[in-house]
Amino acid sequence: MNKKTLGIVTNDPEAVFQKAVIAGARLIAAQYQYSIQIAQCIGDLPDANGLLIIANVARNDEIRAAHDSGIPISLVAHRVPGTSIPAVFSNNYQGITTLVAHLVTGCKRRKLVFIRGIAEQVDAQEREFAFRQALMRHGLTAPTAHYLPGDFSMETAADSMKNLLASGADFDGVVSADHIMAIAAKNVLQNAGYRIPEDVSIVGYGDGPESELAELTVAAANIVDMGRRAARQILSQMAGTVIRGETILSTKLIIRQTCGYPKELIPHV
């Protein structure tokens, strides 16, 4: 068995979120002279000395079995109920709450749309819950039709926004469960003749070069740091340290043009 291998389980290593997590894990692996192996299934990494599992790519019973076998595991954006497996999350509640507050108080938006993530993923569930709670806090409601399928996919988000426009729905703000879907919604709205942010303000969770190029206002944690922390948890377990519980990374509001402020008034952050 290779004693210097860290396995990463993910369904799409080139997707924006997964790629950033992997980049962070690679930094720690290189520091301690571990190689990285990436696969879509736990069973495809028989020689790995530890596993970093991203989101819900593996079934909970598979993760439990691997954990029970003694292999060190750290989860990113996922939890397995009834186990002590450590996990790393971004602060979904903080991020969405901040975005809604910014739209409502800073951009004066009242009729909000929410673009959902993948229903089975913890991040998607927590972000939608936070959105619903934030609406109540501001005395707002959103009809069922304003909750759009997104699946963390640009294509799905774009189709959902097109369908919303075709329905004649009345809205002035969009909160997206991730920044990639927010960019897709922005493109659809602009192609349909909407002015951003004059007609509709758009915000999204998470950040990347794509968001900066699209001038998208976001709330984001450091995703590369999520990968670093998860990898450190695995190596610490290999060294005999018992690690339990969840590590939650704070988010930061990054104000750009889609928030509704003129460019000359955007704070430098």
List the helices and strands and how they pair.
Blueprint: E1 5-9, H1 16-31, E2 35-39, E3 50-54, H2 60-68, E4 73-76, E5 87-90, H3 92-106, E6 112-115, H4 122-137, E7 147-148, H5 154-166, E8 173-176, H6 179-191, E9 201-205, H7 209-213, E10 217-220, H8 223-238, E11 246-249, E12 252-254
Parallel strand pairs: 1-2, 1-3, 3-4, 4-5, 5-11, 6-7, 6-8, 8-9, 9-10
Antiparallel strand pairs: 10-12
Characterise the protein shown here.
The protein folds into two domains: 5-89 and 222-238, Rossmann fold, CATH 3.40.50.2300; 92-220 and 254-265, Rossmann fold (3-Layer(aba) Sandwich). The chain is 38% helix and 18% strand. The chain has helices at 16-31, 60-68, 92-106, 122-137, 154-166, 179-191, 209-213, 223-238, and strands spanning 5-9, 35-39, 50-54, 73-76, 87-90, 112-115, 147-148, 173-176, 201-205, 217-220, 246-249, 252-254.
Tell me the strand percentage band.
Answer: 15-25%
Number of helices: 8
Strand tally: 12
Give me the secondary-structure category. alpha/beta
